[in-house]
Amino acid sequence: MTEYGPHLYLPIYCFMKNFLRYILPVLLLSLLFSCVKDTDFDQLQEVVLSPNIEVNLLFFEINSNEFIDPATGIARPVLSDVTDIPFLDDSDTQEGILKADFLYEFENTTSIDYQATISFKSGASSVMYALDILVPAGSIGNPQTHVVIDEIDVPEIYQITQANKIAVSIDPMGQLPTDGSLKMRSKATFYFEIDGQ
Amino acid sequence: MRRVDLWPIGLLLMLVATVSAQNKPMLFGLDEVPQSLMINPGATLMQDAHIGVPLASGFHLNVGSSGVSLYDVVGKQDGDITQNISSVLNSLNDRDFFTLTQQLELLNFGWRSGRKRYYSGGIYQELDMITYFPKDWFTLAWNGNADYLDYPFKFDHINARMDALSVFHFGVNQSIGRHWTVGARVKIYNSILSVSSLNNKGSFTTSLSAGDSDNYYAQKLSRAEVSIQTSGLSRFDDGFTQADLISSSLLGGNLGLGIDVGATYTFDDQLKVSASLQDLGAIFHASDVKTYQAVGNKLIEGIELDFPVLSSGQSPPPYYAIFENELEAAVPIDTLYSAYTQWRPVKFNAGISYGFGPAAPGSPACNCTKKGKPFTLESEVGFQYFAIKRPKGIQMAATVFYLRRLYRFLLIKSTYTIDALSATNIGLGVVGDFGNFNIYLAGDHALKYGNLAKARGLSVQFGLNFKFLEK
To answer: Is position A72 within any domain?
Structure first.
């Protein structure tokens, strides 16, 4: 193959270099932008997305016999449990959330009332927000449904979004039941507002 | 309020304009420009040899959107921008799309061999993107699922394809008898980067559960099958330099093979019909291939508490981790490394043209000489049809044109194109022949050039070539 000296392709190289560097961008820019009128891109910063997200939260069923420790046979005065919820204290949630509605639906087929406490905690011990619910007694033949909607707005929402755990404790009020169960299911609606700035 | 970058939304909405990103109604049948051979290898030719100015012989850019214009999104309009965008979103559906196509010829040349045969070849680079509007997922992000109970958000709304490739081609054009000119071009595709998400299936639905269910909502991932196929991606891992671009453009990508075929039938000096098929071929993605795939069914429940008896110091079960693990087990995200084949978007062009008026300036007075500038008439009118196969179906465009050879060195062609998006697309093209130097410049949507923001598409083409005629 013949090796051509640089003198041969230098003019082409110079032309192409200048073409790519100056002419082409100017052509494209003039086509793309010079004739674009009556637009205001800054408006995009004012765009506000407001998605409302529905999710399941916690659920459980406690049978009457679970109030007795099977190992020792001794009654458990309060049943409690806790789970991580790593999405509330996430910085995206903290910045974007406007309010949240929590719905707790209990179904009691035991003969006693319960004091249920839902606590939003940061770490193991700091309670950021707590809700006490009195669940009325029912029976197997006549289940008692009890629905509580907790609407959390500013400023409580800022406490909720510091939490990374939800703890539930169930305190039986009176003689322990011999049959039936206490069920709960729950959901949350998160109202976000996300802007473009 | 949470603040996030919304520029991707803006960008997506901005890329909204015309339909057929690879349609080149200006060049099809325009025998004065050597690049007409690239659209129809069976074109009738006017030169005996040509060579393009390297990197400047053919440039094509087209952006388009089927549903909205830039002005619809960021125009200075009355009312709230959020409300304006909401109404734009509502007006789009999952078959609306955004396209971007860009081609740049690195090299283009051709020569006549004998009286009836013309060989041509070259290299060009192409970037081709199409994204259908992911309506359901935009809706979910924009509004959330609270007002969409029982509505299935469908994964097939996610449909996009992007290819960056270089193409090495060589073609032959042959006149047969007095009437026929036929041609074929072989293409070797060298894929630099290919990313696509096609043929996704399944849906996500939130419904109220039955009264006795453990959960308040039934949130179902039904028969979800979502995948993203990539090839050539690892090249970009450690930054991509100019040297990488040059080396990957020339060799080293995944290869493919394709052909273009075309023919022209010339009835007489006035009437001719022509048709061509481009990119009948495929790319075989075998190296540096990664497919990310999620397949599965899952009823997404809340977190179930067990209230276990714990001795002191014992921790409760890691409910949330269990929840996440169950989700991942039901809908695992796998990375596959198996080869795949992708068909190129095949294109079809057809046209009929009728010449009239006196002989064109510079043309011989009759079709009776075998050498020199071929006989042409001053004016031509005609009709052209274009179709391209895209992931969600065939997109079409119809064009009528008027061509006028004004001077020996100048012709203009004007087109009026109707496609799925726009019924007011007027294009203008100019071809200049200055000695052996040939220059063409063409643009679509001329009516909108006063304010491109209101156009749903923009297409420009230009090129610089040298043409040679035997005297």
So the answer is: yes
Q: A82 to chain B: which residues are within 8 Å by CB? A: 316
Residue B144 gets which letter from DSSP? B
Q: A150 lies in a domain?
A: yes
Q: Tally the domains of chain B.
A: 1
**Same-domain pairing of A20 and A82:** no
Instruction: Please indicate if any CB of chain A lies within 8 Å of the CB of B11.
Output: no
For A40, which of B74, B140, B144 is closest by C-beta distance? Answer: B74
CA–CA separation, A158 and B42 (whole Å): 71
The token duo for B251 is 């060799």
User: Looking at the complex, does the CB of residue B282 fall below 8 Å from at least one CB of chain A?
Assistant: no
Q: Integer distance in angstroms from the first to the last C-alpha of chain A?
A: 59
CA atoms in the 13 A half-sphere facing the CB of B420: 22
- 3-class secondary structure, B289: strand
Q: What DSSP designation does A39 have?
A: B
What does the alpha-carbon distance between residue B313 and residue B293 come to, in Å, rounded to a whole number?
A: 42
Q: Facing residues of A131 across strands? A: A118
| Rounded mean pLDDT, A113-141 | 94
pLDDT-derived band of residue B154, with 50, 70 and 90 as boundaries?
A: very high
On whether any CB of chain A is under 8 Å from the CB of B210, the answer is: no
Q: Does some domain include residue B370?
A: yes
Is the same domain home to A96 and A137? yes
**Which residues, at least 6 apart from B395, have a Cβ–Cβ distance to it below 8 Å?**
B19, B20, B387, B388, B419, B420
Q: Do A36 and B143 touch (CB under 8 A)?
A: no
pTM above 0.90, yes or no: no
Number of other CB atoms surrounding residue B38 within 10 Å: 28
- pLDDT-above-90 percentage for chain A: 55
Residues A139 and A159 in one domain: yes
> Domain range spanning residue A25?
6-39
| CB contact at 8 A, B191 and B230 | no
Check CB contact of B368 with chain A, cutoff 8 Å.
no
Total of domains in chain A? 2
Name the DSSP letter for residue A30.
Answer: I
Residue A155 in domain: yes
CA distance B184 to B278: 10
For residues A22 and A89, state if they share a domain: no
**Which residue in chain B has the smallest CA separation from A56?**
B302
- Which residues of chain A have a CB within 8 Å of the CB of B209? 185
- Written as one letter, the residue type at B167 is V
Highest mean pLDDT out of A101-115, B64-78, B299-313: A101-115
Selected for mutation to probe chain A from B7, B51, B73, B74 (highest A CB count within 10 Å) is B74
Confidence of residue A126 (pLDDT cuts 50, 70, 90): very high
Tracing tokens 């921790």 back to the chain, one arrives at B315
Burial of B438 per CB tally in 10 Å (0-12, 13-18, 19+) = buried
Q: Are residues A28 and A88 in the same domain?
A: no
- Give 3-state DSSP helix, strand, coil % of chain B, rounded to 5: 15, 50, 35
Residue A92 lies in a domain: yes
